[in-house]
User: Fold this.
Amino acid sequence: MYFNRLHLPHPTSPLEKLPIWHKDALMTDAATKPTSFQGLILTLQTYWAAQGCVILQPFDTEVGAGTLHPATVLRSLGPKPWNCAYVQPSRRPADGRYGENPNRLQHYYQFQVIMKPNPENLQELYLGSLDAIGIDRDLHDIRFVEDDWENPTVGAWGLGWEVWCDGMEVSQYTYFQQVGGLDLDLVSGELTYGLERLAMYVFDVDNVYDLPYNDHGVTYGEVFHRNEVEQSTYNFEHSDVEKIRAKFEFAEAECKALLALENPLPLPAYEHALKASHLFNLLDARGVVSPTQRQEYIKRVRDLAKGSAEAYAASETVT
Amino acid sequence: MPELLFEILSEEIPARMQVRAGADLSKALTAGLEKAGLTVEQVQVLTGPRRLTFVADVPLRSPDVSEERKGPRVGSPERALEGFMKAAGLTDISEAEIRTDPKKGEFYVAVMESAGRDTSDILAELIPEVMNNFPWPKAMKSAASNFRWVRPLRGLLVLLDGALVDIEVGGIKSGNTTVGHRRHGPGPFVVSDFTTYQSQLENAGHVVLSHDARKEIIQSKASDLCKAQGLELVEDEGLLNEVAGLTEWPVVLLGDMDADFLNLPDEVIRLTLKSHQKTFTVRDPKTGKLAPHYIIVANQVAPDGGEAIKSGNGKVISARLSDAVFFQTEDRKKNLIDYYDQLDTVVFHKKLGTIRDKAERVAALARELAPKVGADPDAAEYAAKLAKCDLVTQTVIEATSLQGQIGRLMYEAEGGNAAIATAIEEHYKPQGPSEPVPSEPVAIAVALADKLDTLVGFWAIDEKPTGSKDPFALRRAALGVVRIILENGVRLDLGKILPDRVFYLLNSLADKHSSELTRAQSVLSSRGFDDAARDLDEQVFNETYAEAWKTDESTGQGQVLTTGRDLLAFILDRLKVYLRDQGIRHDIIDAALTDGQDDLVAIVNRVTALQDFLSTPEGENLLAGYKRAANILKAEAKKGDLPEGDANRPTDEHGAALFDALNSAKPTISKALAAEDYASAMTSLADLREPIDAFFTHTQIISDDTAVKENNLRLLGLMRDTARQIADFEAIQG
Assistant:
């Protein structure tokens, strides 16, 4: 049963459940459509808050994708309903281009929505969010194209689509089926918006650094360009390989120790799994990982993440 | 008859699954209805992105059925009566009728009446059963439900003769409404029958229900749009099927791209547009070259005539093609051969080393095969090394299906030799039973070497196909070998080549392994772990190689020979399948496939000559004579040992004639066989027909005179041996 999330009329037939979102409450008229990167984020937050989502702030450990936030990976386990949305910076050190590529960044933002269990009108809610950010669906062709999602690192997979707007992928839409290698009590619907790419599309900008960050003349480049240059330089040239390897070992040991406790601590254990994952990405960016070692590192991270997920799920069932 | 209309509405079904799902739904429902005693007529099934629709004519009720079951005689023992009552569902024997039969006397008959059922009741059971067991390639659960469907289920419409049939599946209750296109006509629409369903959806609802109709619309509108611009659509049935599964209301638009992109290879453009953007390429009919346009299939009519949709797609396509240009520019900074060492970073198979290891082996084998296919050995060896190099280029990493093509294009752009360029592209061929095989010598050598190396490798590590499991596509590789050999008339002694390659493979793996082992040992030793270093050696050897090198005690032969022979048998099996598909009888193939044959071309020549021969009157007669002789010999062998030694010239006229004919035919046949002149061998065999017939007609073979009898048996033995040179006639049926 859904908990009290939406102020919606009780659906009587499946067909009446279809077109439901509150236009008035969600500022979808032209005057309030976002015109900047931060406006886009604020609009999405407001929209999903109105759907009953808890709006979280970003997780404070480096992750490679918004999905890895414990609010998604761990909260999708167990029998408790959970709806949340958040912006998550994602770091992919190997994708850095010293601020010279108009599309590629080593640090970028994803907007993540998780609704557990997935409401029956999640597709309509999602389409409503596109209206809210100013995509005119009369003019633009929105399509749900098969794309199943899998993240072996956390033993997770689901079925869904990539959502196309005029042939461009604007979101990933997934119904989780397993997380941490475990079948789920309740299926979650997960939405991921690649914010920079979406913003470039909505604001018709070809170079990410030219995106308007706010409505007062500040660009994305002014905020982040220097960070891209310095972080790329660090990732590719100055990171201390030996120390990173040692830190990886430490994170792995810490995670295992936390899981081995009589009363395991899956939340801090999972954080250490994420740290190990990021450290591996740093090593990978330096090109010091051979293909065989690569497989081995990935397996080690996977074991940590899965172990944490299992411990979390076990404690969720007990309470 | 009354009409059944059933629609399953769901969230977007993957395009590739829709048509198959329609067929599965139709099959399961029809079978279920018929099993319930209903006739099902006028079945129609329609599929689209969000719905599967089944329409058929069915009666409102299944007929009453009366079934009789005969029972035991009146007055039979209690236990027999009990058994009968139980089987017929009776509670008392008085419920059975008593009938009389002149033979059997009085006996019981149970008449079981089962009343017909309302079709709506049958549907209420059948539909949930069909849906709960639906064979989706991948299905999912949604929210808190345990019901699995391809994507969340949204609605069920079930009308029988216009009346709603109440059912519930996966938490969804049936209704009499449906929805249309999201933007153009969401509905809901109240439906009373298929006619109103179709007309509402196809008009106000903006949903073209039939997959084929959507294909037709896309195809014809795209062609018209191209024609109007003096262009021509590059047809692509696979893509057409896919976009017909991605749209409910297809609208075709012609988009533009920067003409500079046309400098990319056509294959790259086509694949980029197709796989990433689901758009069709367009060509200039005058030059046959791609034009700087493409066909987009949108799912709606936009108020701006599709300008925004075109511009959005154009941006994405331009970004994708820019990436392709970038990859290609990067790739071409080096020559193709410069990627060779990088192949060492890609694992072919854990136990068989990297792609570079494989390329090394293929190159050595291609060099060896070259003289046999009329290729220059240096060219074949070099082509084999180049053949895999494009696998590590960025273009192929992005688009694997371009493997081979990219290598060929790069090598051509470098000004490389044409025969080698062809070999690079064609060495993967044939991929399927109907794809043409390579026909140029260098390409033949590399294609054969590549496939043989794959087969030898997986045989050596005992990863053969079993049953329906063939994860490494080894059957396809073996069929490829068969077809390349036969269609090019390549003469190979596979019986020698295969074990040689197994030996070579194991040696080269062991060499590579031992150098790695040495390195690992020195690391261990340098840290003071001498024992561990020694253990490592033994352990690795035992795990990896001891098995492969072991001598099979029962045959006294090394694993190398056994593996080679086993692989040859597998290839000959594929040959049989191939010949059977060509219409050659399998018993004839078995007869001609005697031990030790390994030259596929010779085998096929022999099989064909034999099949031709057996269809002549001489052939039929000779076969009969041969079988008669073989039967007599078999019968005599049961009584005691057959006489040893050679036959003497019999004294009777017909025996003597047969003796002379055999003694002249035997060496002639063996000479003809050695010269592979199968037609002559068959003719010589045919010449034996008359003396054999005469011998069987006029001579008493099992003579009372033991000496005569024994000599006759020896003569039959000679006859059998003579014919056996050509084939084992006993294996032939008829």
